[in-house]
Amino acid sequence: MGRGASRTGPTSFKQPTLGPVKEVAAGLPAVVSAWKHGIANMGPLDSAKTLSRANQHTGFDCPGCAWPDPSEPSPFEYCENGAKAIADEATNKVIQDSFWKENSVLSLARKSDVWLNAQGRLSKPLIMEKDSNHYKPIDWDRAFGIIGAALFNLENQDDAYFYTSGRASNEAAFLWQLLARQHGTNNLPDCSNMCHESSGVALGESIGIGKGTVRLEDFDHSDLIVVVGQNPGTNHPRMLSALRSAKKSGSSVLSINPIRETGMRGFRHPQNPIDMLGSGVKIADDHVDIRINGDMALFRAIGSVMIENGWIDKSFIDSSTSGYDSYVKASKKINWDEIEKATGQSESRIRDLATLFSRSRSTIICWAMGITQHRNSVDTIREIVNVLLLGGHIGRPGAGVCPVRGHSNVQGDRTVGITHAPSEKFLAAIEKRYGVHPVDRHGADAVHTVERMRERGGIFLSLGGNFLSAMSDTDRTAEALESCSLTVQISTKLNRSHLITGETAIILPCLGRTDEQVTSKGPQILSVENSMGVVHMSKGSNTRPSMSMRSEPTIIAGIARKRQDMAGGAIQWLDLGSDFSLIREGIEATVPGFEAYNSRILRPSGFELPNPPRDTRTFRTSSGRAEFSAAEISSFAPDDGAYTMMTIRSHDQFNTTIYTDNDRYRGISGSRRIVLMSKDDMRERGFKTGQMVDLTTTGVDRNMKSGEWSVVPYEIPKGCVATYFPESNHLIPIESYAEGSFTPTSKSVSVLING
Description:
This protein has 755 residues and is an alpha/beta fold. The chain contains 31 helices and 30 strands.
């Protein structure tokens, strides 16, 4: 099946140009880069106007990361990469009808991701019919009719899959899950399955809520902030402002990561003249160059030393936790030789780190994909929680867990019902409110969506995102999409998932965050939830580039109404799709914490959702206490002769959206087919800088090989290498995922390197 389109784009690659690694993030170069992207996409006046509304109380939420806004935002409350994401979405470039006549899917698939993204906004509904290689315009009503009929005519309702991007608003996400559940499935894979699913599972088991427990203001009241498995300078740049402020308030910052990233080296605040003109502020007071996936061993060893020396909050442990005795027994069994091998750190070094933890009255631990995308990720996160529980650092000012979300509303989407494993309470509330009868069996997450579609086909519908490029195992993901009878993409820009499709493919152009949301009922507002549980308004004001574009809730309602007309049901879909306040009333009726949603969302800073561990030190676990974990220590060991590979982003990239082939902070430009490798490993293998090599995944019974990668020397632990995604997703087996969360193991892949 499939049209034979390239799954990866161009097959010829340029050698990179290498320069020095940057010691300081942001500053004037970031300002120049932000405005360069803005002017190129929007022009100087529209760029200034649009950026001035980013992350403001009456403006729109940045479509980049989910870092929270301060209570009093500055006039320039955005970072370099946020500005790029805004400019990318708000571009005045629009794809015209002639484009689709001139370019077949086969020819487009040979273009790079950078080229595809640069073509501009999608402007009209499109269809590519069976046996065709060209998209062509289609009117909205016919598109809705085809999709609605396809859903209605499915022999098995569970053969429909409703994927969600983290950029969808609360309102769009709620309607999306309502459509899926009225249809009769809980197949709601989402981007969280690929990133912080491990965090949600681990935190739910340990503290009773799958979210972080800190507020933004806690950073200024913390003694110690630990940033582990995370690259804030590129992936969450506004976090650097919070770390800078924390350091000025007396906090220490500890970085734990295989690579010492630029943002943790130093930071020039782009809105501070002293920083801009000076050498900047050193962010990390200390850096631990841990081996890939050595984090669980490290935190178990730190906890062991704290127990050994009595550096614990016994009162909190006795009153608020369970499982401590089992954890103590496990901590006493550590083997320091094994700990040193797994972490790459000496016993004395780890004992010094434990001393640092013991001196802190209030500790925050932050993490991202470097922690969540391993086979043992759930256990690792629970080990991080163990160390915080030892010191009583939950429900205390300046302390707590802080999983940093990388997509602007991925947290909110989960809160309002985007999950393949809904609670009985939520399903009952949906039934009571809308008269639907949701199935109670769990649906498919992202991994199982790929596996089931490869086997059975079906219908794949995507609310934003780029599933092909985001998912592991590019070939199997492509096979899954090509096995479908219909694929539907609700999108703002062209991406590779539009080119690897089912027998029939439909693209529906939607409005973005920066666009004014106007329906038949007039101007509307949307809402999102940030990484720290604050729900707030998002109101775009840009005139839509094409009058053919529609808002996401309006599109979802149009599909749902057509299906309901055939299948039956009483949901007033057209009203929901035109009056977003009605959607918020539905959320209020079905999701705890959203009381008076429509009025509270108008507050300048929005409102905070309940967080029992933080607010009252209460834990909704089976025991009613915070749970220690005593899981057996594990780490990733590559096969003989192989290396441990992790995937990373470049600085000119937001998730699967790639702006250029450059990585300014790491001093690499002109190519993304890069293998970062230690100088010692290169010397042992006889590799020269820029040498072309092939990568082959080990431990699988099928060919997973990728050629033409360029070796670049870098400061990374021996035996470890790093590559950019999505290019290296081809090497991550679909059957390799985190135990308990099914998150792909993008940060621990065993690869052979041959040149």
